[in-house]
Design a protein that fits this description.
Pfam families: Hydrolase_3 (PF08282). Keywords: Hydrolase. One of its GO terms (cellular component) is cytosol. It comes from Priestia veravalensis. The chain is of the alpha/beta class. The chain folds into 2 domains: 150 residues, Rossmann fold, CATH 3.40.50.1000; 103 residues, Hypothetical Protein, Haloacid Dehalogenase-like Hydrolase, Chain: A, domain 2. It has 10 helices and 14 strands. The strands form 2 sheets. The protein has an 8-stranded mixed beta sheet with strand order 5-4-3-2-1-12-13-14, sandwiched between helices. Strands 8-7-6-9-11-10 form a 6-stranded mixed beta sheet, with helices on both faces. Strand 12, helix 8 and strand 13 form a beta-alpha-beta unit. The chain is globular, with a radius of gyration of 18 Å. The N and C termini lie close together (12 Å).
Length: 267
């Protein structure tokens, strides 16, 4: 019996114009009415997940920044993880490149050293402004505790950077291609899969009692956690092969979950 449904946001639940389509909103409500808890899991900040939840007038468990933060639907914090300032400084220096945009994320704000026209365009895809933080390196450990470093740029260059950083800092970081032109660098052992396990432990559930749906490489760890995993039809083939099934929408995945539960005899 599935008792928890976890959905990724961008490319999955969230439309590219930053809204949730009606059929998906209704699917989440139907799950909740069938006593299935819902969790939103994203590389986005918790404040953005809360904004989306408010927009669709609902309340969910939340996993933000690929698992750096885990919150219950009643706003109880289960997990929070940030970089040590020395490691954040080393990573930031390694990622600076005139061809890349580097965002440093705290629990509730994205920062850049200098805002440009490119940053202003990127900002349109976010729910809250990107803030300027002059002398970024000097701020680490003082007024800024980074939980994620995001690099935007050419996909092939990011794949190469991911390999280099993973080799150099393999005991200290995990790195995910969260979208075609986006690389997220996280503290070690931060993933959506580990975050869901933290939530499962809190709820007293087993991995086979959760279903999840996503579309990108940062969703693979949660696909590996449970046999009830769904990849979006738009996902890269390399991502799809890690999921149990492929769906065209969150609402389709929800219907499959409800049908499976309804086929299990009640005791």
């Amino acid at each position: 019996m599935i008792k928890l449904f976890v959905s990724d946001l961008d490319g999955t639940l969230l439309h590219q114009e930053k809204y949730v389509e009606t059929h998906n909103i209704e699917a989440l409500v139907k799950l909740q009415e069938s006593n299935i808890d819902v969790c939103l899991a994203s590389g986005r900040m918790d404040s953005e997940i809360l904004k989306i939840s408010s927009d669709i007038q609902n309340n969910f468990h939340r996993i933000s920044q690929n698992g750096a933060f885990v919150w219950t639907r009643d706003n109880h914090s289960l997990h929070a993880k940030v970089f040590e300032s020395e490691l954040a400084s080393s990573l930031y220096k390694q990622t600076l490149n005139p061809n890349h945009v580097v965002l440093v994320c705290s629990n509730d704000t994205n920062y850049v050293e200098t805002k440009t026209d490119v940053i202003n365009e990127i900002e349109k895809h976010m729910f809250f402004p990107i803030e300027e933080q002059e002398n970024m390196l000097d701020s680490f450990g003082l007024n800024l505790s980074p939980s994620k470093i995001t690099i935007l740029g050419d996909h092939s260059e990011l794949v190469a950077l991911q390999a280099d950083l993973t080799h150099q800092f393999k005991e200290q970081i995990d790195a995910y291609i969260s979208a075609k032109n986006c690389l997220d660098i996280m503290p070690k052992h931060i993933s959506k899969g580990n975050a869901i396990q933290i939530l499962l432990d809190h709820l007293g559930l087993q991995p086979e009692e959760v279903a999840c749906v996503g579309d990108s490489f940062n969703d693979i760890p949660m696909f590996h956690l449970t046999p009830n995993s769904f990849a979006m039809a738009t996902a890269p083939e390399e991502v799809k092969k890690h999921a149990s099934a492929v769906v065209s929408s969150v609402s389709e995945a929800a219907e499959i979950v409800l049908a499976r539960n309804n086929s299990i005899p009640t005791k």
